[in-house]
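TEACHING EXERCISE
Course module: macromolecular assemblies
Task: Read the component lines below, then compare them to the predicted structure of the full complex.
Student: A.B.
Group: 4
Components provided:
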Amino acid sequence: MNVKIMEREILNPLADTQIDDVKLNPIPRSLSRISLFNNTKPGAETVLATIKDNLGDYDFHDARKPAGAGASPKQIENAADSELSILALGDCGSCTTWIVLDAIKLEKKGVSTISVCSDKFAPFARELARSYGAENLKIVEIKHPIAGQAPEMVKSRVLNIIPQIKELLGV
Amino acid sequence: MEKNKKVKVNKDCGCSIEDLMAENSMKKGLDPKKGLERLCSGHENDFEVFVDPDIEKTSNDFYMKKMTDGLPIIPPTRARVNKFLDYSSRRSDDVVAVLPPKQGKATVEKIAVNAVMAGCMPQFMPVVEKTVEAISKEEFNLAGVNATTHPVSVCTIMNGPVSYELAVNNATGCLGPGNIANATIGRALRLCLMNIAGAVPGIGDYATMGSPAKYSYCFGEAEEENPWEPLHVERGFEAGTSTVTVMAAEAPQNVNDHRSRSAEDLLDTIAYTAATAGCNNSHVPGELLVVMSSEHARTVWEDGWNKEDVENYIHENASVPVNLADRGGRKLDESWIVDNEVRITRSPRDVVLVVAGGAGRHTMIAHGFGTSSESVTLPLTINGNSVHSITEYKQK
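Instructor-supplied answer key:
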């Protein structure tokens, strides 16, 4: 006589995901107007100012948004008044989240984006973008940390990523 | 298996049953080999016995897959999960919410699986389901709450008859251990955040240090001890409506005041305890949870203060000097500055005041997630009708 002992099935607690693909916009070759979307994180202003000073001759305009929550429709409209929006700074969990999610909002409005995230949070930024259907969202990594650092230190770290940004711009 | 095919007997199991059967055959003068035939040659096994998975093994397997909070779990078998599904008014594959950062689909069944793991009773299912629905509201900002480096957790406050029916602790030790509802409802929500939303520490949850409040953070309001209207009534619900309020909050901090005999003195102790430089509210003002013991509440009430007076007073007096306030993760907006101070709440409505706890002259305060999250209160309903007893779910 054979007695077979079997364990009851255990159900999987992990969920299926819902991924809605987002069409990302190429950066126009005839780029002229760039919005600098500042989430007011410490160092974000220096990051964006240094990019502005070193990127080239473009028509820049400033836009602001919250760090730990999404931009308001008005703030998105302001940043969307451009062909490219550069968002900074993702150097923590919630601010990285909303850099990515607001960048996706802009992409859905037809605006190209470049998101600046620190190297400690860039992997999460990419994973989040993938979860929201924007796997190839343009994310540039800057060395962590930025908050709490001297402006000269921040500037030198920004100068290191200028070539990457220029490459994305095709210049 | 082909019909009439003889099954090869495997004697490796060591149970000796096959030997005993052969021996028995010999005693009867029968061919011992015939004793080795199956009782039913059409099946590989004579009996199939189903047993529950080993709890220790399952816990370890799940832990290694990062599917637990580190504590042992109850294996979520189909039978156990079905008992929970009986207490849902939805179908098992209905999607209650899609939760960031992973954009996981929180179906009723996935919520039930995680609630089983947490050690919930099946009757808690409607509450866990409602908390998942509540945290998915846009104003709660779950994407930010889950991923932030800040040690914010999700605090669940229960009001109304179901809170009492489920014996949710609203008295002595209500923010501590010892009650199955308080311990497991909050834990179930945390497991949903980890397994459905993907808020696994270091993967989708980047809290620099996290918080003990992330294990479980659930309690009821002691409505009968509250001299004012309870939270759900303040938010527009009938007293007999059962509600779940979720608030993004830090771990609670104690306010010990055994001496104040006036409302003003007591509220000063609370306001000064709340007015700390390092909270999110100091540079991005937002909600402040105040869990007042009945003894403290009575002192204030007996001084003639109503709930609105209390909320106004805390709003106006819990403030931080601007030079200390402007050190947070977001640039301080100058519009928050009043007389060189920053109030940690935007308005009196940001003071989320409830009464709970046992005997003793203590209050607990917990800072929120600043301007980045708003608490949400939802009623327990079936087909849009308010639920007065959890048994209504079973009888639906």
